[in-house]
Specification:
Elements (H helix, E strand, L loop, with lengths): L7 H19 L3 E2 L3 H9 L11 H8 L4 E5 L7 E5 L17 H10 L9 H10 L3 H5 L5 H8 L1
Antiparallel strand pairs: 1-3, 2-3
Helix pairs in contact: 1-2, 4-5
C-alpha cells in the first residue's frame, strides 16, 4: 500500500528533526543538497507538499522560526541549515573559486593572442579590472561570449 502524500507540516517537521538531530550530534549544518534523500526516507515523495517552491524557499518560509540558512563564503552554492539561535561558519582553506582581480588576471593571461597580440577579450578585461570587487561580482558574461572575444 503506497504512503499517503505528506503535508507541508509533515515535511517541515521532518526537516526540523533532521537539522536539530544533526546539530545535537555534530554541531554541523545539514547541507541543503543532502536533504532530499533524507526527507524521502522519512515521508516519501514530498514534491507536492512544497507547493511549487524549491526546498530552500520552503525552508525559509515554513521553518523561519526554527532553522536558519548558512552559506559558505567562497563556495556560494554550499548552503546548510542550522537551528535558529545557533552560529556556524564554514571553514575556509583559501582554495576554491575566486572573484575579482585574480580571476580577471587568469582570463586575461589565457586569452593572449599569438605573439602577445591584444585580443578583444584583453580590452574587456582591462576595463573590468578597473571595477572594484563589489561591482566585479555583479558582472556576468556567458562563456560563449568570452570564447568569441578571445578569437
Amino acid at each position: 500500500m503506497p504512503k499517503a502524500q505528506p503535508s507541508a507540516d509533515d515535511v517541515a517537521k521532518c526537516i526540523s528533526d533532521i537539522v536539530h538531530r544533526t546539530w545535537a550530534e555534530s554541531q554541523q549544518p545539514v547541507l541543503l543538497a543532502a536533504l532530499p534523500p533524507l526527507i524521502e526516507r522519512v515521508v516519501g515523495d514530498y514534491d507536492e507538499a512544497l507547493g511549487g517552491r524549491g526546498l530552500f524557499q520552503f525552508t525559509q518560509e515554513a521553518l523561519a522560526d526554527d532553522v536558519v540558512a548558512v552559506r559558505h563564503p567562497v563556495h556560494i552554492a554550499k548552503v546548510g541549515l542550522i537551528p535558529k539561535g545557533k552560529a556556524y561558519q564554514f571553514p575556509t582553506d583559501g582554495s576554491g573559486p575566486t572573484r575579482g582581480p585574480s580571476f580577471t588576471r587568469l582570463l586575461r593571461e589565457s586569452a593572449r593572442g599569438k605573439a602577445g597580440e591584444k585580443t578583444k577579450l584583453d580590452t574587456l578585461m582591462e576595463v573590468l579590472s578597473d571595477l572594484d570587487e563589489e561591482d566585479a561580482k555583479q558582472v556576468s558574461i556567458p562563456f560563449h561570449i568570452i570564447l568569441k572575444l578571445s578569437r
